[in-house]
Specification:
2 domains; mainly alpha; 6 helices
């Protein structure tokens, strides 16, 4: 009987030790996960804190929840939440950087449009003026055939249509389409000016 109780005692002691060991393992894993989440959020704050303050605040709230569970001994819940946080931090950082790149691209596109909207109308006006003068002239310059002059007038008319499309796209907030049409205008205007022997603005050559 004593041996039986001794065996039972040994088993219970072993079980208790296993529980303690498992508890320590769960705690260590949870602490490690929480620390990793903390570091990830600190890094994210440095990288995107200014452009995504609300997202950072939400992450910090979630981290506080995981830490609270860790302090209360709910290691499994703390572990799960902390591990999920690390993944969420990566997603938030990626989304914020994509948004930042989009803003930078928009600024760049806006600058391109501003430059073109200032230069192209002047080119078109100069072209139209030259075409009007040549149209009234009794004889075209020696290096300009009637066929080439007709092509110039066609290019100019097409460029005007493209410029109208460009302006409409810009007003609609579609910068990519506006720039695409504006570039078509520039190409046609440059070609027409070269055919007429006109000086092409340096800004239109790039």
């Amino acid at each position: 009987m004593k041996k039986k109780f001794l065996c039972i005692g040994v088993i219970l002691l072993f079980a208790a030790l296993m529980i303690v060991a498992c508890g320590k393992a769960d705690k260590s894993a949870a602490e490690l996960a929480v620390n990793s989440a903390t570091q990830a959020i600190d890094t994210a704050k440095t990288e995107i804190g200014k452009i995504a303050p609300d997202e950072i605040a939400a992450l910090e709230t979630a981290l506080a929840s995981a830490k609270e569970k860790l302090d209360k001994g709910d290691y499994k819940a703390a572990l799960t939440e902390a591990q999920g946080l690390v993944t969420k931090v990566n997603d938030v950082v990626a989304a914020a950087k994509a948004k930042k790149d989009e803003v930078v691209d928009k600024v760049d596109l806006t600058k391109q449009w501003k430059d073109m909207s200032q230069g192209l109308p002047k080119m078109m006006s100069a072209l139209q003026s030259r075409v009007d003068i040549l149209s009234k002239s009794k004889k075209l310059p020696g290096d300009l055939t009637a066929e080439k002059f007709a092509e110039v007038k066609s290019e100019l008319a097409s460029a005007k249509e493209d410029w109208t499309k460009a302006q409409e796209s810009f007003k609609a907030g579609n910068l990519p389409d506006a720039l695409s049409s504006a570039k078509a205008v520039k190409e046609k205007a440059v070609k027409a000016m070269e055919t007429l022997g006109m000086k092409v603005p340096a800004s239109a050559k790039s």
